Amino acid sequence: xxxxxxxxxxxxxxxxxxxxxxxxxxxxxxxxxxxxxxxxxxxxxxxxxxxxxxxxxxxxxxxxxxxxxxxxxxxxxxxxxxxxxxxxxxxxxxxxxxxxxxxxxxxxxxxxxxxxxxxxxxxx
Length: 124
Fold this sequence. Notes:
- By secondary structure, the chain is mainly α.
- It has one domain (2-123).
- It has helices at residues 2-10, 22-39, 42-82, 85-101, 107-123.
- α2 runs antiparallel to α3 (42-82), α3 (42-82) runs antiparallel to α4 and α4 (85-101) runs antiparallel to α5.
- The chain crosses the membrane at residues 16-36, 42-61.
- Keywords: Membrane, Transmembrane, Transmembrane helix.
């Protein structure tokens, strides 16, 4: 529990894999401020709830991306040690799935995935 809290505070490498949501969160906060007088506070609650939901969603995506990249790099090391082609098939399948499913990956993350998939294609 304490280690996961430390990782969240320090920032995990997964933060570099997912596009920032800071602009959207800031916009929702400003909207919340503007809605305060018009709605008697309820608009602010809704706006800030959406901002919190966005932050939680981004955190979960970043954590998943970091885990997927860690798994693919481990598979690359596993292939180097054992020459088992199942590792390469895993890298290819996981990389293609990430490119298709996760639309908020940074350009650097997409480039890294393409490099890993290229490595897998080279040796399959």
